Structures are given as structure tokens and as C-alpha cells.
Amino acid sequence: ALHHLHPFLQRLASLLLYILQTHLVRELLHEGQALSIGVSAESGHGGQWLARIRQLIKEGSVPDVSLVPVGISYDSVTNVKFGSKAVMQWLLSLLWTKPATSVMIHLAQPFSLKEMCESGRCRVDEWLPLQDLLLPVVLNNRADNVFGRRRMSWLLPTFPSATELEEKSHSDRDLSVAIILHLIFSAASCTAVMSTSVVSSLLLYKHSKGVSTSVLCRDVAWLLEELLFRNKDVGFGGTLQEIIHYSLSLLAPDLIIAALPSGKDTVIVPRPSVASILHLSLLAQKVTHTFILEVVGACAVSAMLCEVVLSSVSSKLRTDGVKGEEVRGDMEFDVVLSQSELTEKALQLCHLLPPGIMPPCQSTQCFALDAVDSLVHCGILIMEEIPRDVHICDFWKKEGTLTWTTTDDPYHSDSDCEEQDLRSYKISQPRQCPEMLFFFCRMLAGHLRALCWTTMALDQMDSPLAEDDFLSQIHSHLRDTANQKKQHYESCSEEAAHTAVRTLIDLGVLLQMYQTGGIFLGVSPLFQLSENRQKLQWFISQYLYN
């Protein structure tokens, strides 16, 4: 609400709010009270309270505090309007019209805020603006990768007049954001996966066209085994049939269930509506978070296959000893991929991920390497030694085209200081889940597709617009696009619109302008050119499963 005030009143209101918040936090902590702070990964709301606590510790007003990340798992999500009547109706519906749902509260490992800040665990010295990390790659102006981590300063919202009051330096502000990211990631990591999350994930990302109950039971058993193999807690028990029946009972409003003519089995299809798909997508996020390494690695493989197809060298692929075929879910293909190229693709994708989904204390380079390794562990990639006289495909950004080099070339390196990398992989189809690669790719498709659609919408936007109006128009565009296509409804939520707009701001596609009426958003001069918008769309869409 402060954005709509006169600039002088904004400054005065910000100062009063800062003083009141700091005084309130100090008094509560002196009394030994426990504070419950909710931090939003979408808007960053709640982060200011953590910043106040850090400031009090630095001033010596408070010696130290322990932070305990709290995660909540639930079987079903219900939009409940606040009010005694609405709450009573919701409780009655749980008691009489649905099976008893489960809610689990998880406490992650507590940590000292002072120690976390002083130990150097949260490194922010490599944080860079997103446009510095990705814009040169998107526009093909520079071949080299810029190593670093995306700065997400918007997770600690401030007004221009209050910036100097809240943080003394840029690195100090980044450290507060790092603590916020650590809390978001820890809370998400400690939560158990519920049975409805497992079923929702399979229905959305593996069987969107429908699946029989018998096949669904088999896949639930497989996915449950994969979750437990990764030491992930699950919030359910019982026989496989009981788990499936319980989950389908809760998800029934979001599904179409029909009996087969034989009468021996049923077919289950996600209901093609915005509300149903968004509900299933929200539940499936727990599974996506668990497999984020495999998801990023799979999308990197998809991007490389996309480049192979678009390079129009299928005939040359066969003559040079590398076979390529149309990429479909039911095919067999034999493509040799270099580790360096896969890691590069994974690294670039990391910068587009929403906040809180990557380990905050791990560098993006290590995460990208782990993403590629995770595909080897689950059988999607098979490592092999390539003879030194065999050609491998390597997409050199310096040339901007597909280049073929032999591995015995002493100058085969992306930089003069790197050692030659002979490690290569072939794509395989694991016996237990032949379509695992595409299953993982689809998990991130909703986020990436929303980003693509938002970029496309810039052609129709009359900017600059007030930030709220801009977000509202983008959200409407996403919903209209999904309704027109009659699919991909997971890409049209308010959260998807907000995250996409925030990413485009960080990327320099949209500019924030502080005016008397508030914050306005407009397309930057660089991306008013349709050619640059098309380059950005292609860069994002290469990671989409197609």
C-alpha cells in the first residue's frame, strides 16, 4: 500500500514501519518469545523480519537466535476463505464427504543465525545479476559461461527510500537473502511426500492421457521405491491397493474415472480444467523437489537433443558414426553426448529455476555436475569411453553452430585452462521405467512454458503499466493461452505468472520504474526488438520436452 503514497509520505511511512518492526522484534526476543515467520518464495514477504533480527544481532541487542525451518505436508489442498462459517463448512466436508486427510508437520535441523552468518556457509561473493549470467548466452554475444549464482534481491523487498535503513551494504543484503533461501529449501526438503503427491505426479507427468489402475499401481510402487532410495520420508502406509484407493478418493474431484468395457479395470484421466490441473500440480511439487537433480539433468539432455534436431544434420550424424532419430517417448536412439556440453546446459538452466528449489549453500557448477551424474545413477545415461579417433558432437558457442571435432585434437577445449574432457554418455532406457527421461523433463515444463508464454505476451502489452496491472494481464494471458490450447493448465497459475515476470525483470527484459503512482513495468529497449524476444523464447523452449 505504501507504493501508492506520495514519495515524502512513502519515506515517512517506511521509517515508521522500520522502527516499529525493529522495536517489536527486540521486545519479543528479550522476553524469550518464539516467533513464527512465514517467508514467501513467490514475493519474499516475511524476509524483512529476518533482516530485522540479523540487524539486532549485529548491534548486540540480541546475542543470537536459533532458526527452525518448518515444513508442512498435506494430502489435499483446499481453498478456504477465512471466517467462522466457511471454516466450519470446510471441517464438516472433511468429516462427512471425504476420507480423513492427513497433515504432517516437520521440523528441520535448527541452526544458529549468528553462526550461519559468520561461518561463511552462505557464500554470496559469487552472486551476480541474472542478466550478467544468461543474457550473453541468450543473445549469442559471448561464448563463455559466466560462473556464479543468480542474485534474488527481491526476496527481501524494500522501497527505494528505505534501502539504506535496512541494509548497510549489497553483500549484507545478499546474506539476508541467502538465509531466506536456506529456510525455504530446508523447509521443503524436510517435508514428507504424501500418497496424493505420488499419484498426482504420475498422472500429470507420465500418464496425462490416462492410465489403467493396474498400471498406476505398478508405477506407484516404482516411484515409491525411487523416493525411498533417495532417503525421502513418505507420509503414508498400508498395502499398495489401500494407498491407491485412498489417494484416488481424495483426488476424485480432479479426475475422470471410467470403467473399461471388460469391467476388470478402470481408466483414470486428469480432469482437463484449470482448477483440477493446478491442484494436482501443487501436490506434485513435493516429488519434483525430491528429483530436482534428475529433472535438471533430463532437461539438459532434452536441450542437447533439440540442438541436434534443429541443426539439420541427421544425415551427417549417421555418416560420422553418431546415430540420430526422431525423439519420441517410444523410440530407441543412440546419441553420444559430451559431459562438458551437458554440464553447460544444466548450468544455464539452473539460473532459470524458481527460488528455494536448489541447495542454497552449493555452487551452481557443482549442482550442474551432480545433475548429470544423477542421470548415470538412475540409468538414463551410460558412461562410455570413446576411442580417440571417433568424432563426438560438441556445440561450440564461439561458432554458434554444430561443430565436429576429433577427440585427439590437442586444442579441443572450451578454454585454454581446462583439461581435455573425454567423458561421454549414451542415452539409455532403464528397464524399470523406459520413459524416465521424459517423466523428469515434464516436471519442469510448467515453469518453463509459463516463462515462454510470458515472453510471447510482451508483443501484446502496452507498457509501461503499473506492476499489479502488468501481473494481472500476464496472468490473464497465461489462462487464455491454456484455455485456447485446452492443455498445460499448470502453466497459468498466479504463482507461475509472478515467477515468470520476476525472472524477466532479473534478466533485463522488463524494467522497473519507480513513479509517483507506484512501480511500473515496461519492456526494455533491448527486448523491444522481436528478434531478441525470439532468441529468448528459443533459449527457454529448448529445455521443454517436445
From TrEMBL:
Signal sequence, start to end: 1-27
Protein name: GPAT/DHAPAT C-terminal domain-containing protein
InterPro entries to which the protein is assigned, alphabetical: GPAT/DHAPAT, GPAT/DHAPAT_C
Record organism: Ameca splendens
Keywords linked to the UniProt accession: Signal
UniProt keyword annotation of Signal present: yes
GPAT/DHAPAT C-terminal domain span: 183-510
Pfam family membership, one: GPAT_C
PANTHER family to which the protein is assigned, alphabetical: GLYCEROL-3-PHOSPHATE ACYLTRANSFERASE, GLYCEROL-3-PHOSPHATE ACYLTRANSFERASE 2, MITOCHONDRIAL
